[in-house]
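User: I'm new to structure prediction. If I give you an amino acid sequence, what do you actually give back? Let's try with this one:
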Amino acid sequence: MTLVPLNLVQEQLSLSYVQAVTYRAGWNLSVPRVDHRGIDGTLEAPVKGMSKVDFQLKSTTVFETQGEYLVYDLRVENYNQLVAQDDVPRILILFVMPNDPDEWLSCSAEELCLRHCAYWVSLMGETRSTNASTHRVHVPLANLFHPDTLQTMFDHVSH
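Assistant: Good question. You get back a string of structure tokens that encode the predicted 3D arrangement of the chain. For your 159 residues, that looks like this:
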């Protein structure tokens, strides 16, 4: 049992996932001390002079799939931050976790395991939402946030 609120544990585990994937791929990651403009961090390719990708990170135990998509209800404020045009492309990274907090992390002498995984989607250029509280987004299951797919993600959002 933890004395830290579960939402804070969830937030830090999702950030740990992003850090592990990013560093394993040899990329750079920066996380601001204060989240402003809905940016939780910036990914930068290892090749000098390449552009950056900002990300907003969310984690959830409540999700559904519809065909080839994860369906997630994002707060309107966050959605509108992600659709805004900016000099730096933005993506949403959604870390999907088991419902039972006891299954979020396991470790032994052989491994450290975070369950389940994260997916990404670019919403830039979409229409701003006028909904009252949330906006439903569809995150492709094919967009796994994984060391082997970071370059593909980067190529997709930087054009």
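You can read the tokens as a compact description of the fold. Here is one thing that stands out. The radius of gyration is 16 Å.
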